[in-house]
Design a protein that fits this description.
The chain is of the alpha/beta class and about 375 residues long. The protein has one domain: TIM Barrel, CATH 3.20.20. The chain is built from 16 helices and 11 strands. The protein has a 4-stranded mixed β-sheet with strand order 9-1-10-11. It has a 4-stranded parallel β-sheet with strand order 5-6-7-8. Strands 2-3-4 form a 3-stranded parallel β-sheet, covered by helices on one side. Helix 3 links the parallel strand 2 and strand 3. Helix 8 runs parallel beside helix 9. It is globular and about 50 Å long.
């Protein structure tokens, strides 16, 4: 299959026949994963703090430091969560949180070392905004900061904080967060140090189709350079309880009363959870365009199990995590909960063979009948 150009990708995104796009994505999936196996990982999302100075407009999870709901997990609480994860067969924790003004790199180093001292578990942690914030506070380069964290026990880095890799969009939804170039730089430095990472994309807020293509192209170009991304995870913005969602609702009400602002409401009416068709279109395009990223993950967390099953026929080859715990998306009112049996059953009923994996997509075991 010839590599898709940005121009063709934009055309596909805007107007391609959805079933046809799905068939193209499925051919790509079969080429990369011909054995019909769909993987998943048993892990837990642990958010060590919800205090964050970025205050992104799309986030329902963050709290100000003085807020009564603000917290920083104690080691006792953290260790309890890890023990529960291991007892359930978990092999990894995903640990990330807000940018807390009182926490410095010494806190993170101590946190990592204390976990590794007590537990044999993979630590997939700290998104690029967190790592960039640590580096700035410590007066260190990104490379030095990542090396310090790696030596302390950090095994890999999640793709959080990417949203849409377009500074035009980032200025609107997360003006205090690092820009696209810094996000990409964190990932590049990690890859150079031999660390694997994932990449994500949050769509369905204020971006245009061109922004989505720019995001995919940025990921593909960095992957051409470093080959450090293990997977790509596109997921849809969840507006409930977020500043962006409130702004959108208020704008629609206002514009309902003032017809002269029709153009404005049209531009902003996209501030809603993406439809199933939109999700599948973007997922399929991601699989086709990111020909150098080996794995595409379905997002049952935002779409539910049934749509995640359909996603397996639109290019996805991974069912993601069992998510023993998830707080960020749940704060926006989306609380899908599934068991390992639910995931295994969903994969089988969709016509695939389920396999438990680790972060590097090495198969731990294939679950047979």
């Amino acid at each position: 299959m010839t590599r898709l150009t940005k121009k063709d990708a934009l055309t596909f995104l805007k107007s391609a026949d959805l079933p046809g796009l799905g068939m193209m994505a499925e051919r790509m999936r079969k080429k990369l994963h011909p054995d019909g196996i769909v993987t998943f990982i048993i892990d837990r999302n642990i958010n060590y703090t919800n205090v964050c100075i970025n205050k992104c407009k799309f986030c329902a999870f963050y709290r100000n430091e003085e807020d009564p709901e603000a917290y920083v997990l104690t080691k006792k609480e953290l260790f309890k969560k890890i023990k529960e994860t291991i007892a359930l067969g978990g092999t990894q924790i995903l640990i990330q949180g807000g940018l807390h003004p009182e926490l410095d790199i010494n806190y993170y180093v101590d946190l990592l070392k204390s976990i590794k001292k007590k537990f044999n578990i993979h630590i997939h942690g700290f998104s690029p905004p967190e790592i960039s914030y640590m580096a700035d506070k410590a007066g260190l380069t990104l490379k030095k900061t990542i090396k310090i964290l790696k030596d302390a026990g950090l095994d890999s880095i999640p793709g959080g904080g990417a949203e849409i890799l377009s500074d035009r969009v980032r200025e609107r939804v997360s003006p205090k967060k690092i820009g696209r170039d810094k996000w990409l730089k964190v990932m590049e430095e990690a890859h150079k140090l031999g660390m694997k990472t994932t990449a994500t994309m949050m769509f369905g807020s204020v971006e245009e189709p061109e922004d989505i293509i720019e995001h995919l192209d940025a990921v593909r170009r960095l992957q051409d350079k470093t080959n450090g991304f293990t997977a790509f995870i596109p997921w849809s913005f969840q507006p409930l309880n977020t500043e962006l969602g409130v702004m959108s609702s208020e704008l629609r009400v206002k514009n309902k009363k003032t017809p002269q602002n029709t153009k404005l409401i049209t531009h902003n009416s996209k501030l809603h959870a993406a439809t199933a068709a939109e999700y599948l279109r973007i997922l399929a395009l991601s699989r086709i365009y990111l020909d150098n990223v080996p794995n595409i993950q379905a997002s049952w967390v935002t779409q539910g199990l049934k749509m995640a099953q359909v996603a397996l026929r639109f290019g996805a080859n991974d069912f993601g995590s069992t998510m023993i715990e998830e707080n960020v998306v749940a704060a926006a009112g989306v609380k899908y909960k599934v068991s390992i049996n639910d995931i295994v059953g969903s994969i089988k009923s969709a016509g695939f063979k389920p396999a438990q994996r680790d972060m590097y997509y090495r198969r731990i075991k294939i679950l047979k009948d």
